[in-house]
Every structure is written in structure tokens, then in C-alpha cells.
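Thread title: Can someone regenerate the structure for this chain?

I was given the following input by a collaborator and told the matching C-alpha cells would be attached. They weren't. Posting the sequence so someone can regenerate them.
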Amino acid sequence: MPDVDFVQLLTPEGERVEHPDYSFTGDDETVRGLYRDMVLTRRLDVEATALQRHGELGIWAQLLGQEAAQIGAGRALRQQDYVFPTYREHGVAWCRGVDPLRLLGLFRGVDFGGWNPSDHNFNLYTIVIGAQTLHATGYAMGVQRDGVVGTGDPDRDTAVVAHLGDGATSQGDVNEAFVFAASYQAPVVFFCQNNQWAISEPTTRQSVIPLYRRADGFGFPGIRVDGNDVLATYAVMQSALQRARDGGGPTLVEAYTYRMGAHTTTDDPTRYRHSDEVEHWKLRDPIARVEAHLRRNGLADGEFFEQVAREAEELGVHLREGCRQLPEPVVTDLFDRVYTEISPELADQRDEFADYVGSFEEAVR
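Best answer:
Regenerated them for you:
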């Protein structure tokens, strides 16, 4: 791995370092909370992967190794801020109060995302690569016109976050979103988790310059942060979000991290990357560095770590038992959610489809 310049406030060994432009302003309790969030998010990921392997989920998009990027970005948000995720932002969903079972429902195929976006200011997952950046930019332009940007009221001024991966930066939708965001000075932060691999395509093959520098061509700032450093991610995102809320326009934040797991549970990363690369990044595990910091400085005792471990076990039980109890969908609901008033033609199709599905049930009996 080449040397990379980025904002870092906590080294892989768990030592605090200074940066001239960014600082972590949270207290020790905040650090302990970030650690807890990351541990529970990883447990969610591990349990969901196991559920998929046991046939309970159709597929799962892993986030192993990206916990610091997601928790740092998620906890930097204010209540009124709005998030547009991809399909991997399980940690951000956790920060926004979405029950993880709602995430499993989507990957189990029993709903389209069972949470109400307006309850959490967290949009539904987006499968189409890069499309959410356009959604986020349009929403940001809307809140700008609603007069909730740059008023100086910390409880009203709103920022929008568009999550994307390094692979999405090659999509036309993303570049179009950059154009509109820059032209209208939209209050949006593009948070790119550069986990080094767009499925099997390395970032070095997609871009000859660091991804954060792409913002230069569109006329707004770009910053690269150590995405395995939750303190630095939190600090950088706080700054970028406040700039957006104040009316300063968009920012591209590149969180330089690594996907230690597979792209999804249908992927075999051993076909395109070497094991020594994975081992190299394991030494930069985002959770291990915060634990080292807490232990080395006496900021958390054994009881704290045991309590977090117990919470992780409880979350695992909740996910395993709850996933199997998720209700099966009523397939004919698909027809009822196309138009406000269903047309006679569509009603006929619904009834024919219901008879077709019912014929299988009769055959079983």
C-alpha cells in the first residue's frame, strides 16, 4: 500500500495526533459511544452474513472494515439533516435509529425497506449505482428553497448527505449530481467510502488521481480522511456538514478505507485480490484502534467492554429470531401501489395473478 495523505487524528496503534485544520471536539464519553456503535454495527454485519449463509437472506452487502467511516459520518449528523444511502450504509442506518430488522427485511425479500424515511431522515436503500447522488442533490436544492439553509438557526439549518462508493464515481449520475450541486451551491456532502474495490475493479484502474481531487474540476472542495479513523471522520464530516448548513455549498469527502469482507455474499474476493493485502489492512482495523486508545489511556474499564459484548450478543439474538419471524409479503400488494386509484385493466391483472399464485397453494394441498 502506498503512503497516502489524509486527515488522521487516531493512529492504527490508538495514539491521538493533531491536525492543523481538523480536531475532534468530543469528550471521552463520545469516544466510548463511537466504539459501542462500531462494535454493534459489526455484529449486525456478522449476523446478517451468517443468516444469508443459512438461507435466511437472499443476499447481504457486507461492511466489514468500514465501520469507522459510517459511524463517524452518521454521528456527525444533526436531527434535521437528511441521508441518501447506497445499499451498504448499515452503520449510518443504526445511527439514524433504524431497527436493523428493517434492513434484513429488504435483503430477505419481504419488503422494499420497511422503515419510513421521514421518521429517521434516512432514505430507502438505493441499488442503482450512483442514482442516490442525484436524489440527494435535488433534495438539497429543495431545502435550500425552503429557506432552511444559512439562517444561523442550528435547529433548522439543514445539510444533506449522499453516500457513494469509489466505483460510483465512474457513473454519469454522480458527475451530473456534482454539476448541479456546484451550480446551485446545494447544501450536500458527497461522502465517498473508497474501500479500494468496485467489486473486482481496483480504484487505481478507475482514476489516475485521488478521488477527492475530482471535486476541483466542479468547483467545490474535496478532502480525504482516514476512513478507518472514526475520530477524524467525525471531525471532517462535522466541518463539511456545517459548511453546507451555512450555505457554503457542496463538499466531496473521500473516506479512505478498506472492504475486508466481500462486496456481497455472492462475491468471492479471493479471485481478484491477494490475502497479504487483507492482512495488511487488518492491522488498521477501525475498532481495534479505538479499543487500544481507550485501554491505553484508562478511558474504559473491563466492565465497559463486557457490557458492549453483552449488548452485541443481545443484538445477535434479536436479529436471528426476528429475521425468521418477519411476515411474508402479500404479492398482490404490488398492484395496489402503482396508482392512487387502480385502473380496471390493472385490477384484472391483479386478480389473474392472485388466481395464478393460489393455484400453487391448491396443488400443495
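The chain has a mean pLDDT of 95.
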